[in-house]
Amino acid sequence: MDLPLDSVNCTYCGQCTVVCPVGALKETDAIERVWEALNDKSKRVVVQVAPAIRASIGEEFGLEPGTLVTGKLASALKELGFDDVFDTNFAADLTIMEEGTEFLTRVKNAFTGNEATLPIITSCSPGWIKFIEHAFPEELDHLSTCKSPHTMLGALVKSYYAQKTKTDPKNMFVVSIMPCTAKKYEIVRPEMENNGLRNVDAVLTTRELARMIKEAGIDFVNLEDSKFDNPLGLSSGAADIFGVTGGVMEAALRTVYEIVTGRELPFEKLHVTPIVGFDQIKVAEIPIQNPVEEYKFLDGVTIKIAVTSGLSGAHILLEEVAKGESPYHFIEVMGCPGGCISGGGQPRPTTPEIRQKRLQAIYKEDEGKELRKSHENEYIIKIYKEFLKKPNSHKAHDLLHTHYTKRGKFNQYLAQ
């Protein structure tokens, strides 16, 4: 329409960069800025890695799609000179505590006669967030107020971790390794800062990190495995599955169901089978029977959930919400088809076969962990005890939650 890209309803999902047959479309490069930070001795440079990266970056070094390279990835980041190598998965576990509590609060209000906005919809995908801001601005109250996991972690690095290490937060530089190009836009949103500091300073896609590793002459394939640093590096298997469609919902259900009933989610290997896979819209029903005393009002209630990835499916579900016809209590939306494993910053190509191998790798990572529920992460328990007090506390809301912008089809200045 001959208008600047930032003035129309582009979601910055980056799918155009994945499918462009000649490579003419690419993400805005942040490599030089990150090298500058790494070479600045006054900066403590912290890096974090999204769950989908460990199942895809190996492709950039000739490994079979779906090869898990978690340990090599941590080692490569240490070789590049990052001061602290954390895992975004820690904040994914934190997201479950915050979003799960938010969901239960809304459900409790709805079922006890108080005002509540349902369904609640996940807020981890910034491409999806920008879509709803443009296409369904009147439905923003349905979104969880949680920031995405990597901005949560950035906020904690510049508060909790800065205090622990006695570092001036102004000298902390946070880099996120993401499968997503929309994260580059997300970190410059005015909402994504605390105390005048951006939560995250730079985002590198999977492809950009691979280029940095190659520039540094690191033999990625033959690296020894290492672990992420703590206290912001330990995560559960529930956090790993944030990288695939249906994963955020399943992770939330593992915790929420157990809080409500006192029992483990009754699915084989904890996988909510109806929402696994690449169907455009997936639905499931979770019956609640014999809940704990606090949630007796849910006895006999069936919680209805829906999951979609790709904005066509999101449009279908939001049309139902807008008309007041949605039967669901909880909806997960991811902007990219299949979820983060096929994000706009991932290795090309992302064919259905490659996507399936990445999905299988993510579930393998989850199933291989002893710890598979977010609420059992010892460092999550510790950070609430030492710093955040409890999920949805005032401190947690200040650092980990946000608000959204009614944009409409075009940005406001075009209408002036």
- Number of helical regions: 14
Radius of gyration: 20 Å
Strand numbers in spatial order across the main sheet: 2-1-4-7
Low-confidence stretches: 412-416
What series of H and E elements makes up the topology? Answer: HHEHEHEHHEHEEEHHHEEHEHHH
- Architecture, CATH level 2? 3-Layer(aba) Sandwich
Beta-strand segment tally? 10
Distance between the termini: 17 Å
Structural class: alpha/beta
- Helix fraction, binned, reads 25-40%
Proportion of strand residues: 5-15%
What sort of overall outline do the alpha carbons produce when their principal axes are compared?
A: globular
Please give the largest β-sheet.
4 strands, parallel
Total domain units: 1
The third-level CATH topology is Rossmann fold
What's the CATH first level?
Answer: Alpha Beta
Average pLDDT figure: 94
Secondary-structure topology with pairs:
Blueprint: H1 15-19, H2 31-38, E1 44-49, H3 70-80, E2 84-87, H4 88-111, E3 120-121, H5 126-135, H6 149-165, E4 172-178, H7 182-186, E5 193-194, E6 197-198, E7 202-205, H8 206-215, H9 237-240, H10 247-261, E8 281-287, E9 302-309, H11 311-322, E10 330-334, H12 352-367, H13 378-388, H14 394-400
Parallel strand pairs: 1-2, 1-4, 3-10, 4-7, 9-10
Antiparallel strand pairs: 5-6, 8-9
Helix pairs in contact: 4-6, 4-10, 5-11
Keywords:
single chain; alpha/beta; Rossmann fold; 4-stranded parallel sheet; 4-stranded mixed sheet; 10 strands; 11% strand; globular; disordered C terminus
Description of the molecule:
This protein has about 425 residues and is an alpha/beta fold. The chain is built from 14 helices and ten strands. The strands form three sheets. Strands 2-1-4-7 form a four-stranded parallel beta sheet, with helices on both faces. Helix 4 packs across helix 6. The radius of gyration is 20 Å and the shape is globular. The model is unreliable at about 410-415 (pLDDT under 50).
